[in-house]
């Protein structure tokens, strides 16, 4: 039987999902090419010099709620053997000098009475301008100028940089939950949220309540393995290999040979080449253009943020025994998110591990140091003078987090269109395609494209 030759480029969750999806059928001959020395992409463990393992940021796995996808992602049968299961993400947030351990959304009821009243007044009377193409105009119309100045603008700056041009930002992106606030008790919120214009700006007071109310079936998972989230991508890799997928790590593509707008051969460094009938490309799409010698000129250069991860182990549990991870929306701190592994995996009695994340530009990244990260942890009250660092590691992932500008959108659309016309047998997917970003979204999107093309 003739098997269709498929080359998958990139061994992150997108590429591994695609490999497993196709490998379930006998009709494909699949090769997965990964440029780094191991698969997993962002969903990998980081091993410190002392051998302690940390994840690369906050990465809980989540079910998509689509049975055939979840079966590929997590296998069949009971999950309890290998996974901790949660019905909701237990996240908290820090804002304006105060903790809220129930949700990642800011609860403006914690503001001084006068401020709160002003915010609520504006929040309820402002009319969201859904036609504007400008983030500043949108957010002011959505939540009012006071909240926009006090919370939304500084938080977006913290994520995307002081230098971010707000007139370039896409208006209606979720920005990690930065489009809603908690403003009332849940009963009042529920009444107001039945009206769409309020639903879009109000949140319930806790993630738990939200999950219960909305009857969300999606559940979140975290591996019991010491490898952390890497267990997931390792399992997917092993399953793919067992089903016959050939995996080439530390492999560089040097050229995409296209005939009549179809890639027929993928050439690799070292002289090897692979014939192919289809390519699933989860690496940056601009690279595909270059490797296929397709001319593309754009004046626009995407603005990319560097992820700075500070991993720590302490001699004693962290002073938050509740949250899986916390967001820090307070503008006087550099950190935006902290993962508290022991609250996810329940191993706190041995000490504790956490990862603090800061987004910056490349120059600022060089100025960041362990001492600063530890100071923030102390100021946040997550550790105190009794905490002794028993392990630390710093991981810098340059140029990984795109600033969601309208120009990026346009450039991606332009490149996407050009690629569709020039390389017709290539599926462009994954976070680099900029058509989806969150884990479940990139997976659902690649699944849909594979269904359309192959089945
Ligand atoms: C800082 C940060 C925070 C995030 N937070 C969240 C979150 O809270 N929730 C959430 O759902 N999602 C989050 N995401 C997004 C989520 O992690 C991704 O959507 C998902 O992991 C993307 O998987 P991927 O396979 O598309 O990309 P990646 O994991 O980046 O994998 C791409 C793979 O392609 C390989 N590759 C690159 N170029 C080549 C090449 N030329 N040849 C061969 N291989 C190549 C890379 O080495 C890598 O292994 C976050 C992402 C970042 C960067």
From TrEMBL:
SUPFAM superfamilies: FAD/NAD(P)-binding domain (SSF51905). InterPro entries: Amino_oxidase, FAD/NAD-bd_sf. It comes from the Bacteria. Gene3D superfamilies: FAD/NAD(P)-binding domain. Residues 240-443 form the Amine oxidase domain. Belongs to the carotenoid/retinoid oxidoreductase family. This is Amine oxidase domain-containing protein. It comes from Pseudoalteromonas aurantia.
């Amino acid at each position: 039987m003739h098997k269709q030759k498929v080359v998958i480029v990139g061994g992150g969750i997108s590429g591994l999902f695609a490999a497993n999806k196709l490998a379930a059928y006998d009709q494909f001959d699949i090769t997965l090419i990964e440029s780094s020395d191991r698969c997993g992409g962002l969903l990998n463990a980081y091993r410190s010099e002392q051998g302690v393992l940390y994840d690369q940021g906050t990465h809980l796995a989540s079910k998509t709620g689509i049975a055939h996808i979840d079966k590929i992602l997590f296998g069949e049968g009971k999950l309890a053997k290998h996974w901790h299961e949660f019905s909701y993400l237990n996240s908290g947030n820090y804002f304006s000098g105060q903790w809220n351990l129930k949700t990642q959304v800011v609860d403006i009821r914690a503001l001084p009475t006068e401020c709160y009243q002003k915010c609520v007044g504006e929040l309820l009377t402002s009319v969201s301008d859904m036609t504007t193409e400008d983030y500043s105009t949108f957010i002011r119309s959505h939540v009012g100028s006071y909240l926009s100045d006090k919370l939304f603008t500084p938080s977006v700056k913290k994520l995307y940089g002081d230098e971010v041009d707000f007139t370039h930002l896409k208006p209606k992106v979720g920005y990690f939950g930065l489009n809603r606030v908690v403003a009332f008790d849940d009963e009042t919120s529920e009444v107001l949220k039945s009206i769409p214009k309020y639903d879009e700006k109000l949140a319930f007071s806790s993630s738990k309540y939200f999950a219960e109310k909305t009857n969300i079936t999606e559940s979140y998972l975290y591996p019991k393995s010491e490898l952390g989230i890497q267990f997931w991508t390792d399992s997917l890799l092993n399953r793919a290999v067992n089903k016959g997928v050939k995996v080439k790590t530390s492999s560089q593509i040097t050229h995409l040979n296209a005939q009549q707008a179809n890639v027929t051969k993928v050439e690799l460094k070292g002289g090897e080449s692979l014939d192919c009938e289809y390519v699933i490309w989860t690496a940056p799409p601009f690279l595909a253009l270059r490797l296929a010698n397709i001319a593309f000129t754009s004046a626009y250069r995407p603005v990319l943020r560097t992820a700075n991860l500070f991993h720590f182990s302490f001699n004693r549990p962290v002073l938050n025994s509740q949250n899986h991870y916390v967001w820090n929306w307070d503008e006087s701190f550099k950190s935006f998110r902290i993962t508290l592994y022991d609250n996810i995996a329940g191993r706190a009695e041995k000490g504790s591990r956490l990862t603090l994340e800061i987004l910056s530009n490349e120059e600022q990244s060089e100025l960041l140091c362990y001492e600063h990260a530890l100071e923030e942890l102390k100021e946040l009250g997550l550790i105190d003078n009794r905490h002794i660092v028993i392990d630390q590691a710093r991981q810098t992932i340059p140029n990984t987090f795109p600033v969601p500008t309208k120009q990026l959108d346009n450039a991606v659309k332009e490149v996407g269109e050009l690629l569709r016309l020039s390389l017709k047998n290539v599926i462009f997917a994954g976070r680099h395609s900029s058509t989806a970003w969150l884990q479940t979204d990139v997976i659902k999107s690649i699944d849909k494209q594979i269904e359309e093309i192959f089945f």
